[in-house]
């Protein structure tokens, strides 16, 4: 049997890069172990799972768990909270990171630039528990800095219970996440800007382009391919917001605004003992994430921008 030229070329490339293939084996095994082997547990979503009987002994109920999930009014409330907070964090983080990267790139004073970078990077390495406590302390009605400052300016006459107002929770959560991750998110964009051809800036300067014109016509277009790919990846995890920040900042007065899908699944599984519905919710999240990635990637590809595949 004669091998095709394309197959021969592939085999030659693999043989030439055998060291890299060997190095990648442990990571592939870890990926399989932690990302694919646990998919065995998805069987629970189609069962009336009982910890005592296990997966092999539990009764199969088909799609009953999904039907129960989609008929629960609480599910749609939680889905609203998840999408709202994810979109707010995505937009502010995406725009904020690009804006900060462009700002830092324009700073000529090296010491000031490094100082700003350090200050904005530090919160990323601080535990969310600490960040949440700082936010709660600042917004506290009992001598909290924000209330004291507003009262000093005469804007308010008495302290405001910020964390007791559910309609304000999304804004507070978004600003907290922006403060914590903004500096870290700019690293990739700064690296991209640093890799742009300096001759483009020199040519633009010779043609009389100002600072903002160079940003608009050179820096931003240079960032777009990377920004587009990061945006696609971010949209894929829009329903996987986690639960740390919401649980730490939320309370019983704001539960209708802070409870997200991960917290809902946690309460269903370990609070109410409905493990099967919790797994069904996880499958729903994976399907939505995959659909978003494929859909956005298709539109981006049609628009002529960089795509994942």
Biggest sheet strand line-up: 1-2
Q: Topology as H/E string?
A: HHEHEHHHHHHHHHHHH
Could you estimate the helical fraction of the residues in percent? Answer: over 70%
User: How many E-type strands?
Assistant: 2
Fold and architecture overview:
With 309 residues, this protein is an all-alpha fold. Helices cover 71% and strands 1% of the residues. The chain has 15 helices and two strands. It has helices at 5-16, 18-36, 54-57, 64-70, 73-106, 110-121, 128-138, 145-152, 166-194, 198-206, 211-236, 244-249, 255-258, 261-271, 275-302, and strands spanning 47-48, 59-60. It has a two-stranded antiparallel sheet with strand order 1-2. α4 packs across α15 (275-302), α11 (211-236) packs antiparallel against α15 and α14 (261-271) runs antiparallel to α15. The longest helix has 34 residues, at 73-106. The protein is flat. It starts with a helix and ends in a 7-residue tail after the last helix. The mean pLDDT is 87.
Please give the structural blueprint.
Elements: H1 5-16, H2 18-36, E1 47-48, H3 54-57, E2 59-60, H4 64-70, H5 73-106, H6 110-121, H7 128-138, H8 145-152, H9 166-194, H10 198-206, H11 211-236, H12 244-249, H13 255-258, H14 261-271, H15 275-302
Antiparallel strand pairs: 1-2
Helix pairs in contact: 4-15, 5-9, 5-11, 6-9, 9-11, 11-15, 14-15
């Amino acid at each position: 049997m004669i091998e095709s030229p394309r197959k021969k070329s592939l085999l030659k490339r693999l043989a030439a890069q055998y060291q890299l293939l060997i190095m990648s084996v442990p990571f592939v095994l870890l990926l399989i172990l932690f990302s694919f082997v646990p998919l065995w547990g998805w069987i629970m979503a189609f069962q009336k799972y009982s910890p005592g009987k296990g997966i092999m002994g539990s009764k199969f109920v088909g799609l009953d768990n999904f039907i129960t999930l989609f008929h629960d009014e609480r599910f749609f409330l939680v889905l609203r909270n998840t999408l709202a907070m994810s979109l707010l964090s995505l937009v502010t983080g995406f725009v904020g990171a690009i804006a900060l990267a462009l700002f830092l790139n324009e700073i000529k004073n090296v010491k000031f630039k490094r100082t700003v970078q350090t200050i904005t990077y530090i919160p990323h390495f601080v535990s969310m528990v600490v960040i949440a406590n700082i936010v709660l302390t600042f917004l506290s009605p009992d001598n909290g800095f924000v209330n004291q400052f507003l009262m000093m300016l005469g804007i308010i006459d008495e302290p405001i219970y910020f964390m007791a107002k559910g309609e304000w929770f999304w804004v507070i959560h978004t600003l907290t996440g922006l403060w914590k991750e903004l500096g870290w998110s700019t690293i990739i964009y700064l690296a991209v800007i640093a890799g742009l051809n300096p001759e483009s800036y020199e040519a633009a300067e010779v043609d009389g382009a100002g600072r903002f014109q160079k940003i608009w016509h050179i820096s931003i277009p240079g960032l777009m391919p990377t920004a587009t790919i990061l945006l696609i990846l971010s949209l894929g995890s829009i329903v996987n917001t986690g639960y740390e920040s919401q649980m730490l900042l939320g309370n019983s007065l704001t539960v209708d605004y802070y409870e997200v899908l991960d917290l809902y699944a946690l309460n269903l599984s370990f609070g109410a003992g409905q493990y099967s519905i919790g797994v069904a919710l996880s499958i729903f999240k994976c399907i939505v994430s995959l659909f978003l990635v494929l859909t956005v990637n298709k539109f981006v590809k049609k628009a002529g921008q960089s795509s994942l595949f």
